[in-house]
Inverse folding.
């Protein structure tokens, strides 16, 4: 969920919505960003077991007597229940305007959920977006957005201990250390300041809906590069034309993508060294990968974000792999949206715009089918691709772990 964030290429997926603005559609009642839901407990603290899976945080919830699994997405302004999830007791509540990761605007229906339980806490009267999925994924029913923090709940996300701590006590986490900085709300989601190179500083969305540690908007990078030319150019590993960010309104426009190795990304007083990333036409953001290096605490009463590194340290060596290729949906089919010229997929023969039509001789009928293919890491597959001129060829490629 999304400047904004939403869903990016399937290995770097983010989910959710970003902006919410009142609107009226086809005679439906107007709605507003709503925090009127009530809490079943007061002056409490609760610990909830969470799952850390493929670089994202999943939280168990109960609604209507059914156990569900929601993605914890701080980049989503409001809770979401997907429109293909059967749920009794939903009450229609009008529509909201929402903006996705690529700043595309859409009108989304909203509902009032039946009582939703999060651990021992029950939320009653919670508004949610009834949103379609951009990418079909099993065992995912909805999104737990930043509205629960805006409602006044302190959150601590600790994936090392597989726990989410929730409390309505204003000072519950005050005695804990860590790197503390203020966050700013924009369209109901949190933004913090980071320094990617030199003295250049930008304000970015803190978005656990994205798997990446850091992604920078292309125009923001260009602005920083003009101010810190020598330092910025040292971070560049390559340039190409393509697109990779998938929002709920579609894929980002075709444009130049810069492949970067950020020597030192500073988040407050903490530094992440050797961060491989790429630019995007969407918004800059810090994502869920930061949770590999420390716990995160949100205090809505002080608008405070606190990063608590695991171990006594002030920096971490990331040295992650560069994105070599991104697959996007185009007219329902899986298409190579971006390929790095220094990467293995390019050397093997993939090119931007290639449509994947077969894998090991078996037809591929849709992007969703490709996402659910069940690839084995390290095994070499024969991809039959069709280029923009209609010519087909076979590319053999072993997907990396």
């Amino acid at each position: 969920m999304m400047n904004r964030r939403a869903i990016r290429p399937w290995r770097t997926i983010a989910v959710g919505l970003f902006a919410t603005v009142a609107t009226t559609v086809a005679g439906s009642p107007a709605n507003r960003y709503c925090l009127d839901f009530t809490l079943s407990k007061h002056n409490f603290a609760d610990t909830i077991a969470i799952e850390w899976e493929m670089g994202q945080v999943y939280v168990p919830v109960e609604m209507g007597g059914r156990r569900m699994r929601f993605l914890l997405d701080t980049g989503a302004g409001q809770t979401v229940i997907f429109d293909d999830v059967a749920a009794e007791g939903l009450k229609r509540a009008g529509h909201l305007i929402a903006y996705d990761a690529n700043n595309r605007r859409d009108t989304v229906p909203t509902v009032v959920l039946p009582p939703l339980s999060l651990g021992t806490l029950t939320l009653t009267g919670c508004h949610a977006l009834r949103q379609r999925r951009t990418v079909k994924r099993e065992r995912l029913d909805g999104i737990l957005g930043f509205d629960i923090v805006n409602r006044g709940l302190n959150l601590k996300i600790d994936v090392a201990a597989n726990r989410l701590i929730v409390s309505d006590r204003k000072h519950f986490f005050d005695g804990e250390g860590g790197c503390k900085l203020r966050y700013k709300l924009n369209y109901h989601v949190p933004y913090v300041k980071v320094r990617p190179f030199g003295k250049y500083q930008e304000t970015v969305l803190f978005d656990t809906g994205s798997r990446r540690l850091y992604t920078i908007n292309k125009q923001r990078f260009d602005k920083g590069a003009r101010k810190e030319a020598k330092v910025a150019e040292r971070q560049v590993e390559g340039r190409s034309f393509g697109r990779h960010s998938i929002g709920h309104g579609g894929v980002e426009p075709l444009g130049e993508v810069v492949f970067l190795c950020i020597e030192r990304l500073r988040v407050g007083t903490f530094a992440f060294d050797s961060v491989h990333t790429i630019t995007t036409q969407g918004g800059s953001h810090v994502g869920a990968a930061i949770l590999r290096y420390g716990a995160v605490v949100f205090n809505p009463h002080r608008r405070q974000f606190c990063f608590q590194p695991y171990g006594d340290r002030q920096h971490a060596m990331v040295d992650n792999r560069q994105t070599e290729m991104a697959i996007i949906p185009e007219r329902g089919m899986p298409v190579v949206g971006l390929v790095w010229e220094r990467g293995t997929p390019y050397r093997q023969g993939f090119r931007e715009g290639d449509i994947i039509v077969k894998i090991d001789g078996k037809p591929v009928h849709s992007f969703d089918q490709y996402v659910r293919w069940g690839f084995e890491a390290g095994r070499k597959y024969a991809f039959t691709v069709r280029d923009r001129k209609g010519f087909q060829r076979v590319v053999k490629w072993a997907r990396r772990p």
